[in-house]
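Hi there,

I know you've been waiting on this one. I reran it after we fixed the sequence typo, so this is the corrected version. Both the input and the resulting structure follow.
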Amino acid sequence: MSNVSGKAYAITNTTPMPPWKTFFLRVVFFMIGRLGIPRRDQQDLANLSFIHFARWVIIPRSAWPRLSTQQPAEDLKYDYLMFCSNFNGSWVQYIDAFSDVIPGGMDNIWRWSDGYPGSRPITPFLAYIARNQYNNDYYYSAYPGASTSDVLRSLDLNAKLDVFVTASETMSVEEFEPAYYAFLASVQHCLGSTGRARVADAFDPSAETHIGVSQSIRPVATVSSATATQTS
């Protein structure tokens, strides 16, 4: 699956916006990025540990790349909102977390996009995201068998191991054994399991079938995850 690398899933989504609404979304982004408003939504989003990152970018209708003079110039009616994110877990769990934890934040960002049904109830929201999602041509993860929590626990384990190694250099044999077992007990939470995890589910646009979502919403185009570097 092009959207999956081990335990990680990459989502790329573009939604059209009438140009007159783009200004209002820029105001929303200014409040979030410069003023930190609403703080609770940002903190709630940061607390979702399975999310690697999430980024929204406004692409004006006149800003799409033109690679040569032979390429016909675009004549688009809409600006576009691009959403890129990497996360661990299933597609439905990820979108459901947005709907459950920060529904107001999602509405503030996506309400300007054409056809947006709102973040609640969840079923129309899932269908909207699926309909506007593009599969990735290529997706790379440095640690495909590890989730963000696995990586953070590994870093914690490495730091604690360095401390224990230094302390053990001056221990006697009698002192080492109880210290070692105490060390193991203190790092049990760091010893997670790595490897592939199931991420596809019924609503996943990359899955073979969709339950409750029309086949017509399945994305037909592809886009590289490198498009996350686009700027407004």
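Quick highlight: The chain has two domains: 4-143+198-229, 148-190.

Best,
R. S.
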